[in-house]
Amino acid sequence: MLMSATILRLTRLRRDRRGAAAAEFALVMPFLFLVFFGIVKFGIALNRNLALTDATRASARQLAVGRSSTTTRADALSQLYASAATLAAGSITVKTSVNGTECTSDAACATAMGSAPGASATVRASVPCDLSIMGQDFAPGCRISSQTTERVE
Prior knowledge:
alpha+beta, 4-stranded antiparallel beta sheet, single chain, 4 helices
């Protein structure tokens, strides 16, 4: 009698499916969270790319039309930082060049722009992309970059 009661209990326990869904969800949940946060992080990276592209465009336009200004590069950088308000200004790396020659100061840009009407004014900018999910960095050293070239007026 004791043996048949034990067998009956084991049979009922084997047929009891309560909690099976919770156990399956606990096994699948980390993968679902990884996919969800991956989609969110990728969307943030795309947003950063769009913001940087727009800011680079506005900055290159400012650089191209600032031929008569003595603070050409500073004005272009100010325009870039103002246009990329959602990006941390300290994390943006910027390079400006006129007619293929890099200008690192206002004086160098003014000199290059004074002798180069119709030449190209280029602004290159980059920011780090953060693709770390659940403590794992999936793209270490990744940078989002943009370049725009305008004609000097």
